[in-house]
Amino acid sequence: MSFTSTYGRHRVRRAVVASVIAAAAIGLTATVSDAAPAPDHASAAGAHRVTTVSPEGADATGVSGTWRGTLKYLAPGKVTVAPKSGMEQGFHVGPHTKVLGAAAICGGPDGNVTIDSKGDGTTPCTLKQLMKAAKTDAVKVRATVKNGVATTIAEHYHP
Fold first, then answer.
1. Which residue intervals make up region (Disordered) (predicted)?
2. Mean of the pLDDT values across residues 104-113?
3. What's the CA gap between 61 and 137, in Å, rounded?
4. Which of residues 43 and 96 earns the better pLDDT score?
């Protein structure tokens, strides 16, 4: 057996493995984008399905509504909100997502807490700050989502 034939077999094996992985990834994408949308609003007593949407499905087929709960990191550009009752709701964040902090995501000038009359943050934050806060699994938020993409995520301040 020559070196060339052994080397060729390794290349073929790698190509087959790569093809299998690619086919599996395509199947997962189809499954995710076919997910049924959740109800248009969250209720304290109602249960919600975990729904994630793909960027392709975020045009007019994604979930829409407002959820309050704990912010959690899912993947780059994707987070979830886990309400006290019901299931987590997943969605995308992007450059058009308005992020408002009170203290944990980001605070006001001089480190002050900035909130409105409902206790939601009012200081503009970056997506980088949002994703960092999401990884702590400790920040309470109100997330407003349209077609699978967050329009506003506001930290809910609780001293």
1. 37-63
2. 87
3. 28
4. 96
Concatenated DSSP letters for 97-126? -EEEESSSS---GGG---B-TTSBB-EEE-
> What are the C-alpha distances in Å from 40 to residues 14, 67, 80, 84, 91?
45, 10, 16, 18, 13
Please give the Cα distance from 48 to 33 (Å, whole number). 17
- For residue 27, the model assigns a pLDDT of 40
State which amino acid sits at residue 140: K
- Helical H runs in the chain? 3-33, 127-134
Contact between residue 80 and residue 110 where contact means Cβ atoms under 8 Å apart: no
pLDDT in tens, 10-41: 454 554 444 444 444 444 333 333 333 333 33
Each domain of the chain, given as residue ranges in start order, spans 1-34, 55-155
Residue with tokens 């087929």: 61
